[in-house]
Amino acid sequence: MPRPQYRNPKRKACAEMLVAALLCEVNQGAFSSSGEKVRLRTENYGIFVRGTPAALLDLIEFYGEQPDFPAKKGSVKLFRQLGSAKVQREGLRDTLTDMGRERLGLTDEEKRSPRSSPTRQFRLRLHYAPTEIADNLRWLFASGGEWDKRAQEQSQVSKSEPVNPLVRETQQKLLEYLYEAIKLFPSDLSEFTPSHCECIAPFVQIMASALDRDGVLDEMIEPMLTLNLGKFYLATNQLDLALPRFEACLNSGQLTAANGCHYLGVWYFRCEDYSKTEYYYLQVLQGRREVWGDNAPYRSRDRHPDLGATHHSLALLYIHQGQYALATEHLQTALDLWDDRPFSLARGLQLQGELCLQHQDFIGAKDNFSRALELAGDRQEHNAIAIAECLRGLAKINAKQRHYERARQLWQEALDLASQFRYHEHPLFPLLMADLAAVHVFLGDRPSAEILSEKAQEKALRIYGKQHQVAIAIIHDYHSLCPRPNF
User: What are the respective helix, strand and coil percentages of the chain, to the nearest 5?
Assistant: First the structure.
């Protein structure tokens, strides 16, 4: 099998023309063909492409005529020198084969089409978001860029000892395995349920080992593994393991860096370092505005909920700090961005209910908690914590209005729901136990209150640590209920 001709300048020109046209189509969507279609679908740092060389050539011709076509003029000239459309199609077909065969860090074919079918299917890998056309083209095709690096590697391999094909095959299978494993990791932290964490736990050690080995991973999968490992560690309260993963994300492409900033904010909020929490949230908010804001060239709103998540996180931070005006501003923005996302909207309404509680607006709080419960849907593992938080809010309203028995029922219902789906190590769990202990005191059931308070203390120490304010408050309540004997 002949080696890919990366050192051939015409192959490089073909590749640059193709990538530039695909990026233009993703951002503009202006191409319409009377014949065969080119189908594109974006996902993270990749573009899934399906089309024949003839259709792809039509796409290149369409965008190549535009005065602001982003490919270098020299590449356009070399491509034109290929001559007839037939020769250009053959050159494009050979280029696709080269890029797919070596995976190149650029593309890999999703599956082989039958020989009788001219249709090609492949995934174009990018280092930056699809909106960053110039950055992606520079990374791939600038002097010393990814294409030239591959040419240099090919030259070195030809001069050195041949690579053991078994080693290459093993590494390739590991990459394929990791690409499949990464699909099992949820995008949102709230979806890392106990049973799902158990399901993906066997993959975590393999992923961590692959990240620690040099020369195993390509530039596409490494940031994805790093981010998702960090989320897994954060969801399972392994904070010491999560921090270095999120910090490593800051050196990746724009999307991964933005996500890394967001979860660093979550991490520092858990650790009660609120100045760093605000810093990282504001950093990621600026980055996400640039990528997914209303003025960005990205045509889909699919990414806007991530922008809403940052506003929601800032609102939660400002409520915790007593800055209610700022909290209201950011929360309203999150609700606007989540207008077509029922579960996310439920989270926003639950937080709005907490804001109403801070202002003693019990009617508004009850309305928000009730609406959030409706939007959260049936009680299942993925939404159990969201529902438990709404039940806790309703219980607080009843307790403030001195309806203690109803408050006890609601807190017990929330605790039972969290227990049913094994959220015993979730940060909410000791809070529910402490709330329930407190209401038992008002109902005159001191023995039950003491038992619950002791369990809440043990759980809070394990989850939060003895220096955290939540744990300190729960320990204080426990000692108030169960004073030490004074000998």
Answer: 70, 5, 30
